Amino acid sequence: MDLVAAALANPNNRAILERLPRLGLPQACLVAGCVCQSHWNLCSGRPVTENIRDYDIFYFDPADLSFEAEDRVIRRLEREMADLGVRLDIKNQARVHLWYRQRFGVDRRPLGSCAEAIGSFTATATCVGLAPGDKGPRLIAPYGLADLEAGLLRLNANCPNPESFLSKAENLRARWPWLEIVEPEAR
After folding, report:
1. φ, ψ of residue 18 in degrees (nearest 5)
2. Residues 128/118, Cβ–Cβ less than 8 Å
3. Is the pLDDT at 186 greater than 70, yes or no?
């Protein structure tokens, strides 16, 4: 199953991707779980939206790193997407390093783009995103799609918080039992 087609089969993903361009957010994209989990649902013969807890939207705006600016964007997107009835998780990736230690207990260096942020997710299979484009969504998959398609949850060496890998992998496997966790090598 083609990942982009599977993601677009989810009406929430499709609606979000259709609306993002008119909001004018730099590098806006739909990322992670709602993209790969739509694929896993279809591979499992389940409804495409089943067990998707939230829809992650990234953008990258280094012009204003304040919480207030990000909060204005969050509130605007929540209003624009309210009719979908889904939980959104909206983050300006240009400011993640400002709060990452407080939330996850480790430092994070400033990121240079949304694509770089996608490349630092915990498991390589979830390092995917879709950016709206003139000819349809553009796939962002810095590690390719082999792990996602094979159902392999492998620690991403570029993850800033590898300690969280096993709990996140177990959480995914609880929802898609056929996923296989590749135990991380000792560091």
Report:
1. -70, -35
2. yes
3. no
